[in-house]
Amino acid sequence: MDSVWLTIGLGLVFVTVMVSPFLIKRVEANLEAFLFIMGAIAVTISAVWSWHLVREALVEPIKITVAVLIAGLIFHYLRHRIRVGMASLIHRVSWRVFVLLVVVILGLLSSIITAIIAALILVEVVSAIDMHRRPLVRLVVVGCFAIGFGAALTPLGEPLSTIAIAKLKGEPHNAGFFYLAELLWRLVVPGILALGFVAVGLVGPHEHAKGELVAAEKPEKLSHVAVRGGKVYLFVMALMLLGTGFKPLIDLYFTQIPAAALYWANSVSAILDNATLTAAEMGSGLSTLQIKSALMGLLISGGALIPGNIPNIISAGKLKIGSKEWAAIGVPVAAVMMAVYFPFVLLL
Question: Is the pTM of this model over 0.85?
Fold first, then answer.
């Protein structure tokens, strides 16, 4: 009977977390605080409060927060140099090579400079070049797919990887800093390279851009960099609480789901933030194949729609890309990738 009430209580929390941001604007605008409250409720329902949990929730987000702050400061002060470098690159290589390099380099670097900074650089690139709207949107969507892929390789990259490492660092997986890189690089790196060529095909020939830089927008204030770091810290802490609160549910049900089913079930991350789903799903009871299948399903589907991943949210917000515009590119790309990757995820 206790497990029934536990399932009902945590199930209600899960549904609330997934639905509320879409129905209530105030929740969407204050997502970090909302998730923190829901995480505290989940931990209370599961009766797993402890000083160890509190310490872990306070300490675990520090690494990615510091990385976001440092990368944000570097980007703030080197923004002009980045624009100058882009101008030089545009005039030295062909348009197709330029598009390929933007997607691949940002995808590969995102695990070091963080997905947030990589998305800001992507926005800077497309904003600085005189491009038509359609190729601009296509480049941004495919670029965010690549950034989301690459950022998963280290816990510095994005909340998804930070949470995954935190939930798997004990026995039997003993996940360290390079655990996800070792587990996923054979799937992620070729995917980033492939996405570069997809971008070249979708963006089209050089007449979509004049190869010239347009006037720079006013750079963001240093206070914005600090606020973004604070939000990331609270966001990761909230997901830590959610993941711990949902652990009894994971042990009861998710460990019994086959790897193939987890892969396809996580296509729901197209409409739900994949870091939140990672917090709800990851647990020491999952096998390595289940972990790999779940994460790849989350990474691929996370690029399909705007809410699926942090780079999507940042890029769409800054460039005023609507949900329909994003879906027109993101959904077909994600559908093809899910089908192509399926046998490789299970066999590699």
Answer: no
